[in-house]
Amino acid sequence: MNIEQFNADHGIVGQIEFFEGQGGLPFIRASNAKANALISVYAGQVLAYRPAGKADDLMFLSEKAYYQAGKAIKGGVPICWPWFGSDPEGKGRPAHGFVRNRMWDVIDTAVSVNGEARIVLGLTDTPETRSIWPHAFVLRLEITIGETLGLALITRNSGDQPFSITQAFHTYFGVGDIHQTSVSGLEGKSYIDKVDGGQQKIQSGAVTINTEVDRIYLDVANELVIHDAARKRNVRITSQGSRSAVIWNPWAKIASEMADLQDDDYLRLLCVETTNAASDVVTIQPGSEFRLTAQYRSE
Q1: Which positions are catalytic residues (predicted)?
Q2: Domain CATH number, residue 216
């Protein structure tokens, strides 16, 4: 579908506009009195979100990100589905599943009476997806752009057998200075330390970052706060459908080895991910659906 057809079918004058973005990919620009956002139809991925009157975007988006078929876009909110992390069956399939590197469908766009934009993207199974993951599904991503950024990932089992998934909003938040950043809401929680061989540890105090961090927190509450002192803001994350969360920062060595990051980008990003990961596995019965939601507010 070309850009003109996208706009004819789903554009809303002055509010939701489709245009050709980097790499020739179809992008969506949503603008209203409450916020501005940028979304890639490829990967079903929010790339940027800035509330009205705020100087800084909520998201980190790498200046060296790839915008090409088969590659994941480094930044914003990549969708990990139907598994989080490495291939759970060890078949050599790509990490974090197969939906963050393919084109999604545009299902619906609307503007609510209170001025929020709503964009629904989706995927359904095909012979090609079933060759990767042998299940029938309908996947929907509902994006709400207003005073907060709302995300709902809805998985429907359209087959005749139950299936299990892990998943994530792999959200890259932009921060002013990682040395002046912390995350509260995980105090006393158990976590799997993937940097230290998967050892299980207990979080003492707020999470601070001064080295590579890759942790899966278990039995988490549904509200976390990023304290971004350099930008004089807090980012409040509320979620439903999730009992785990991931904190990730690559730090200097890994950042320098990633072709789609600048060497010092680790100073400006922090992934705080709303997940169903590790033991937080979701099983969906035939004809049933599961909703994972997250809402981000800059304060």
Answers
A1: 170, 273
A2: 2.70.98.10
